Automatic annotation (TrEMBL):
Keyword Zinc annotated: no
Location of this chain's protein in the cell: Nucleus
Residue ranges of every copy of the T-box domain listed in the record: 39-215
GO cellular component, one term: chromatin
Gene behind the chain: byn
Organism: Pseudolycoriella hygida
Name of the protein: T-related protein
Length: 218
C-alpha cells in the first residue's frame, strides 16, 4: 500500500510510522529497527484459516470474529503514532462456494476506495500502544454506503465474495512513510451469509457473543 494512500485515511496533522509481524514494507532502519508487532490469538486464527475463513458483511455493518488484535513493542515511548488497519483485496477474481469448497469465480470488482480503519485512540504515545494489546474490535464490515454514499463510524466497505487480508500500519507523527505488517493468517472471504457450516460452528464455539451469529443463514 502506497504511503500516500495510508496517509489519506487520517487527518493531515496525524502522520506517523509503523511496524508489524513478518513481512515489512518501507522500513526505515534508523527508526524502526527494534519495532515488532505480532498477532494475538494466532492459533485461533489458524483454525479458521484451515477452513477458509468467512466474515459477514451487512448493510449496517457486522463486527469481526476473530477480532484483529496485535501487540507492539520497541516503539519510542515518547513519540506519537497513528495505528491503522487496512483491508487489502488480495486477488483478481470473485469467489463462489461450490460442492463444499471455495473456488475462483468471475472477475473481481474494483476494490472499494481506501478501506482503511483508523484506530480511535490515534494518535497516541508509543508508551500507550505498548501497554496492552491493540484491538480493532469496533470495526464493522459493510457492503453498502448510506444514502449519501458515506460510511458510518467504524464501518469498512468491502465487496462480498472477495478475499481480503487485514494489514496493520503504524505511522509515526512527523514522518512521511509507514511500515506495513500483513497477517496472512487473518485472510477471509467477505460473505452476506456463512457458506461453510464448519466455519459457522467454529465461530459459535469460540465467540463469547455467539448468539450474534445464530441469525446467519448457512
Amino acid at each position: 500500500m502506497a504511503t500516500s494512500h495510508v496517509l489519506s485515511a487520517i487527518e493531515p496533522n496525524s502522520t506517523s510510522l509503523g511496524p508489524l509481524n513478518t513481512t515489512m514494507q518501507n522500513r526505515s532502519p534508523d527508526i524502526d529497527r527494534n519495532v515488532l508487532v505480532s498477532l494475538d490469538d494466532r492459533e485461533l486464527w489458524m483454525r479458521f484459516q484451515n477452513l477458509t475463513n468467512e466474515m459477514i458483511v451487512t448493510k449496517n455493518g457486522r463486527r469481526m470474529f476473530p477480532v484483529v488484535k496485535v501487540t507492539a513493542s520497541g516503539l519510542d515511548r515518547e513519540a506519537m503514532y497513528t495505528v491503522l488497519l487496512e483491508f487489502k483485496q488480495i486477488d483478481n477474481h470473485r469467489w463462489k462456494y461450490v460442492n463444499g469448497e471455495w473456488v475462483a469465480g468471475g472477475k473481481a470488482e474494483q476494490p472499494p476506495t481506501n478501506p482503511v480503519y483508523v484506530h480511535p485512540e490515534s494518535p497516541n504515545f508509543g508508551a500507550h500502544w505498548m501497554k496492552e494489546p491493540i484491538s480493532f474490535a469496533k470495526v464493522k464490515l459493510t457492503n453498502k454506503t448510506n444514502g449519501n454514499g458515506q460510511l458510518l463510524k467504524f464501518q469498512i466497505m468491502l465487496n462480498s465474495l472477495h478475499k481480503y487480508e487485514p494489514r496493520v500500519h503504524l505511522l509515526r507523527v512527523g514522518l512521511d512513510h509507514s511500515v506495513t505488517y500483513p497477517f496472512p493468517e487473518t485472510q477471509f472471504i467477505a460473505v452476506t451469509a456463512y457458506q461453510n457450516e464448519e466455519v459457522t460452528s467454529l465461530k459459535i464455539k469460540y465467540n463469547p457473543f455467539a448468539k450474534a451469529f445464530l441469525d446467519a443463514k448457512v
